User: Fold HTH gntR-type domain-containing protein from Pandoraea thiooxydans.
Amino acid sequence: MKRQSRPKAPRTTPAAAPLQRDSATSLYRQIADQLEHDILAGHFAAHGKLPSEHELTVRFGVSRVTVRQAMDALLAAGLVVKKQGKGTFVAGQKLQHDLHSMQGFYDSLIAQGVEPETRLIEFAAIARPEYVDASLANPSGQCFFLRRIYQVGGEPIAMVCAYLPADAAKVSWQQASENPIYGILERLLQLRIARADVRIRAQPAGARIGRELGLGPRAALLVMERESFCSDGTVAEHSSFYIRPENYEFLLSAQGPLPISSSIRGATRARVEQLA
Assistant:
């Protein structure tokens, strides 16, 4: 798998322009606008750290509350991310996963011009969990388990836990490190993937996944659960991707025609009761 070079050090931030304290635009909005300009102008490198809360209060001559409001505005706009115990950083490239076409997680990053680093953490035979299809296991009830971290710019963005056929025992650690999941299945195990069912949900990171992704246990994650099938309907793999949500989104295009239901039930009655 390809690797990406480390990001460059943050550039020097220009001096703050004077705030217009008698303007109708709030102080926090003026600060947010200046920082947004600095980010978009490249004064901070991608994934670069922003000045601390204290540094910004001194720079702009405002209270911590005002600085926090400005940072919250940048966070809401997707321009920055907060990392527990480390500070606030410039958000990286917004990444998308197109659900309309069948594509692996790694290949979807490559298609967007990103060259992620990967780190294989676990690749071993384990007892098949009950929620994993029995066709992945051998007669002794074992399947193969893979756990991998994906990084962009040196920062973890996702972790995958994948259950593979027991035949993956013939795949070496080196081969598993160098191939994405679909590469292991198609190139090394000679399986032909015909379709996949994908489910998306949100959940807290928890202690273990949070540590791997640099998040607190209560931080929200996107979870993409995928089950892939061969042309004969046999399950080929069952994967769960735990994704940091700040720079990742899923895209699905829906085609018409658009069916429209009858009028919303109870809406008129509720309005009448409010006017009574």
